[in-house]
Design a protein that fits this description.
The protein is of the alpha/beta class. It has helices at 19-37, 42-49, 53-66, 130-150, 191-207, 217-228, 287-291, 293-299, 310-313, 315-322, 326-350, 365-379, 399-414, and strands spanning 40-41, 69-75, 84-89, 93-100, 104-111, 116-123, 158-166, 169-171, 176-180, 185-189, 212-216, 237-240, 248-252, 255-256, 354-357, 389-392. The termini are far apart.
């Protein structure tokens, strides 16, 4: 019988690791040790990482030169002999996450340890078109760099990378947004035009060789939830954006599930209501058309405004719900039901430990979660019991930008030598 699974041996037989591969791996080993264990001496790293002290000393010297590691105080842990110098992650290498959404732009800056350095979010109407969006994003980037440079008590930072989150299908390799219905974008290049824009307007010193990457907002938000959210470290989770558009980020076994072309997670466009309301994608009955922010505002008979952030848009709804308004409570009950229906589909497909509702959902948890949990339980084949939780996010509307910054940090951790082109 013909072997239909036959593949080229060259694709499965690993190549011999060269000196540079081993060096890069060991640099990563030291960085991740300090990131996971915390501050440690050279001797401590050597002992725990299984490397010789001489090797660790060489690696640390290189990491210090790159600004990834710095020397702190003395290690006085009670051991005999002269105390060693404590090493810790440096503060001079930063990563920037940015987000373009329907009604706002946001930025979040973190250091190697994931500590927040700066955040900003501004109201912005993306209906002005992609060129104006990229121009505004370039200005936000310049403003961020100026604020970082002006920070007192901090050395001139090295920006290791910038990741831009966009609500739509993203060709990550090309830095192109293939389809973003709510932005009304199709085949819009983002990374390269933004880089050129920053160089052409005289900001080349700011952009320099900093790599710009583009990713889906929900996928990046899921990374943020996995790394630093209320359920951080949960190996199997699903994140659902609560914006005008509804998207999903899926973590399986601690890794993002992106699909063949990186388009996985478009849960907002699964059909939950045949012949239901029309969606921004042109179809009817999409989950997004039932639970997206605009759908809620329409059901609550509230006019959408483009000049206020999302949480301000739902303030009147929250106020009426707290006051016991029957119509508002009925709208939220219906919203919770359809959230649960869609969540049940996700539970049946991915069997996660937790489904996290982000964005505006986090402001309505007390009204929508009980109903959603009931619909979720009714719609799942397996008995969920306590094994599946439906919760609201603690990260707010900057989750995607935070995930973008974490994505840039991960690239540095995986290959510290990439900084050689930036320092």
């Amino acid at each position: 019988m013909q072997n239909i699974y036959r593949v080229s041996s060259a694709s499965v037989i690993p190549k011999r690791a060269g000196h540079n591969d081993i060096r890069r791996n060991n640099l990563e080993l030291v960085l991740r040790h300090l990131s996971t264990v915390g501050a440690d001496s050279r001797a401590g790293i050597a002992s725990r990482a299984g490397l010789t002290r001489a090797t660790v000393s060489r690696l640390v010297a290189e990491l210090i030169e790159l600004g990834l590691v710095r020397e702190g105080g003395q290690d006085r842990d009670g051991r005999a002999g002269r105390p060693g110098t404590v090493l810790e992650l440096g503060e001079g290498v930063l990563a920037i996450g940015m987000e373009i959404n329907v009604d706002y732009l946001s930025v979040l800056v973190i250091d190697l340890s994931g500590r927040e350095v700066l955040r900003e979010r501004s109201v912005f109407d993306a209906a002005v078109g992609p060129d104006a969006c990229l121009t505004a994003l370039a200005e936000l980037y310049r403003r961020t760099r100026r604020r970082l440079a002006a920070s007192r008590g901090r050395p001139t930072p090295v920006v290791a990378g910038v990741t831009i989150a966009v609500p739509g299908l993203v060709d990550v390799a090309a830095g192109v947004v293939a389809e973003a219905p709510n932005l009304r974008w199709r085949d819009v290049a983002v990374a390269e035009p933004l880089h050129k824009l920053l160089r052409l307007d005289g900001a080349g010193g700011e952009a320099g060789g900093v790599p710009f990457h583009v990713g889906n907002d929900a996928n990046l938000a899921a990374i943020a939830e996995y790394r630093s959210g209320g359920w951080a470290g949960t190996p199997n989770l699903v994140y659902v954006t609560g914006e005008v558009g509804i998207g999903g980020g899926i973590i399986v076994g601690g890794q993002p599930l992106l699909g063949t072309r990186g388009y996985g997670g478009e849960v907002g466009h699964m059909n939950v209501m045949p012949d239901g309301p029309k969606c921004g994608c042109g179809r009817r009955g999409c989950w997004e058309a039932c639970i997206g922010l605009n759908a809620l505002l329409q059901s609550a008979r509230q006019r959408p405004r483009g000049d206020v952030p999302p949480e301000r848009k739902i303030e009147p709804i929250v106020k009426r719900a707290r006051g016991g308004d029957e119509r508002t409570l009925a709208v939220l009950t219906d919203l919770g039901h359809w959230i649960g229906v869609g969540a049940a589909n996700l539970a049946n497909l991915f069997d996660p430990q937790v489904i996290i509702l982000g964005g505006y959902f986090a402001h309505l948890g007390e009204w929508i979660l009980p109903v959603a949990q009931e619909a979720l339980s009714a719609g799942t084949l397996a008995r969920s019991g306590e094994s599946l939780r439906l919760v609201t996010s603690t990260l707010g509307f900057t989750a995607a930008a935070q995930g973008g910054a974490l994505h840039a940090i991960e690239r540095v951790m995986s290959n510290p030598t990439t900084l050689l082109a930036l320092t």
